[in-house]
Specification:
This protein has seven helices and 26 strands. With about 550 residues, the chain is mainly β. The protein is globular and about 90 Å long.
């Protein structure tokens, strides 16, 4: 049957007998009517100008009824459509009449819903928008933790008088709690792994965001082909959650890629990942480019029990050979990390060791071998409304490395990041700040441990790590850094957004005065939302020296 459908549909399209034409439509353009009838117009069609839509004779009556239904949904209840055929054309002659207008919107609610209702007094009644307003209210209630609400929303239409009265009645009820969480579908993966990576726990408050974050967390493990969290079953204010999962059949993933990086130029990489070796994941990667050679192997062990708790544990060993602008670093490293993610917060503890060889022809750089052992403490608070494409909220993160075990080389490196986002009528405002310092207790740290700036997530007038300290003639990083960005994005066309940004970076090696001699940059960008994050393209330039500029294209959010 599917085979015949694939043949029949193209034949009907090519067998179009009439060119469809509209007349009398004043409120809606031809393009809008074509779109409502299912004739989508591509971007290239629009560039070429007006197009012709051909239809089969059998489609005339169904399309007419579909168009009448569309006009009713848009508030034109008395619209009449006559069909006239002239040679190769069929004309839909439309008499739109007078639309139904909203006379009043009455709201009785113990929960704020006024901003969720876009239909106002004097607006043309729109059935789709009325239905959407109810869905927005339900989603807002679930997001706030209310699942047993009483919502009664009605639209009273007086067709002859061309008026409509909208009535919203809402009692939010009591906040809901999770009664139980059950699992189904998992075969090889232990139940504690799934339970550790969802944010829905018995006897805790229920929020819709917890469901959304649980989806993200489970998919990030890469074990599952599909995940479905059912929270529809409830009794009074108690929700019974069921998490249904389907594990992937394919456990071995091989990747070979070639591309281009702003810093390293042309690159090639090969990697292998086993997604389930007794619930563990093994990863191996080789990467090569003009300035970087990297080999890396890691083992991911989810929900490993220690200290009467369960943590995700990662063992990583790597070797890299990287050429910076005026020095070269060869580094072998090994680390063990344990991580735990909670709802809107996370913590990660690591113990790492590095053997670093620095070589350079510059006298200002300390060369030789550095042997470092350092624990790292990292924690974050994430109150953004989305991890992939956030619009509102804030994010705070602190990361500290303690290299204190070698009496000759003892220092502490700290980085604190803060991000704030707010959207006003589709205009998004974002601000981020990164303040970092490297405190020397004894000896000199390796030059690669100094603080650098520049790149897609920093000052965008520079390539990655190409902005060095401003108070030294040597092109090395600093020991104190203040890196800030302010950005505004706005809609351009469908999913495409434009952006204007200002980046300001102060980086010093000898002085702790981070408010003077800052590098100011500005730029423009484009944004495009995808299912795996935001695709971003930015061009940044230094405000006092336009010749210093850089172009960045990358996937993922800065804010």
């Amino acid at each position: 049957m599917k085979f015949f459908s694939l043949i029949l549909i193209p034949m009907l399209l090519w067998a179009g007998e009439y060119i469809l034409v509209f007349e009398g439509n004043r409120f809606f353009s031809d393009d809008r009517l074509y779109q409502e009838l299912g004739f989508e117009r591509s971007f290239w069609d629009k560039l070429r100008g007006k197009r012709e839509v051909k239809i089969d004779k059998k489609l005339i009556d169904p399309l007419k009824e579909q168009l009448l239904l569309f006009y009713k949904e848009e508030g034109f209840w008395d619209t009449q459509i006559k069909t006239v055929t002239k040679k190769t054309r069929v004309i839909f002659s439309i008499r739109e009449s007078r639309p139904i207008k909203i006379a009043s919107v009455e709201i009785t609610s113990d929960f704020p819903i006024k901003n969720l209702i876009n239909l106002k007094n004097g607006d043309r009644f729109n059935a789709k928008e009325f239905a959407l307003s109810k869905e927005r209210i339900k989603k807002a209630l679930l997001k706030a933790g209310y699942c047993s609400f009483d919502l009664d929303a009605k639209a009273y239409l007086f067709v002859k008088r061309k008026t409509a009265y909208l009535v919203y009645y809402l009692q939010k009820g009591s906040p809901c709690k999770i009664k139980s969480v059950t699992l189904s579908g998992n075969t090889t993966l232990k139940e504690e792994v799934i339970k550790d990576h969802i944010f829905l726990k018995p006897n805790e408050p229920f929020y819709l965001e917890k469901v959304e974050e649980s989806y993200r967390s489970l998919y990030s493990l890469e074990y599952f082909e599909s995940v479905y969290i059912d929270y529809s079953k409830k009794i009074d204010n108690q929700i019974f959650v069921n998490v249904k999962t389907k594990e992937k059949d394919k456990n071995n993933i091989y990747r070979i890629s070639a591309g281009f990086e702003t810093l390293h130029g042309p690159k090639a990489s090969i990697s292998y990942k086993n997604l389930n070796i007794s619930s563990k994941q093994l990863y191996f990667e080789l990467k090569s480019s003009k300035n970087l050679k990297l080999s890396k192997i890691s083992l991911f062990v989810p929900s490993l029990s220690m200290f009467d708790r369960r943590f995700d544990t990662i063992f990583t060993a790597s070797y890299s050979d990287e050429k910076y602008e005026i020095f070269r670093e060869k580094k072998g490293s090994f680390s063990v990390s344990i991580a735990k993610e909670y709802y809107k917060r996370s913590i990660k503890l690591s113990m790492g060791t590095e053997q670093i060889d620095i070589s350079s022809e510059e006298l200002c750089i300390k060369t030789g071998r550095f042997n470092l052992i350092y624990p790292t403490v990292e924690f974050a608070i994430d109150a953004r409304d989305s991890k992939l494409s956030p619009k509102n909220g804030y994010y705070l993160k602190n990361k500290t490395k303690f290299a204190l075990f070698d009496q000759k080389n003892r220092f502490v490196k700290n980085a604190t990041k803060a991000k704030f986002l707010k959207t006003f009528n589709k205009i998004g405002l974002s601000f981020k700040a990164d303040i970092s310092f490297l405190a020397e207790l004894s000896g000199d740290p390796p030059v690669s441990w100094l603080l650098y700036a520049g790149g897609a997530n920093s000052n965008r007038a520079y390539s990655y790590n190409r902005l060095t300290a401003t108070d030294t003639a040597c092109k090395i990083g600093g020991k104190i850094l203040l890196d800030t960005s302010l950005e505004a994005d706005f809609p351009l066309y469908e999913k495409i957004k434009g952006a204007l940004f200002w980046d300001r970076t102060a980086i010093k090696n000898r002085s702790y005065d981070i408010l003077s001699k800052a590098v100011n940059s500005a730029g423009i960008g484009l944004r495009y939302d995808t299912v795996i994050g935001e695709l971003r393209a930015d061009f940044g330039f230094r405000m006092d020296e336009f010749s210093q500029n850089a172009f960045h294209i990358y996937l993922g959010g800065v804010f």
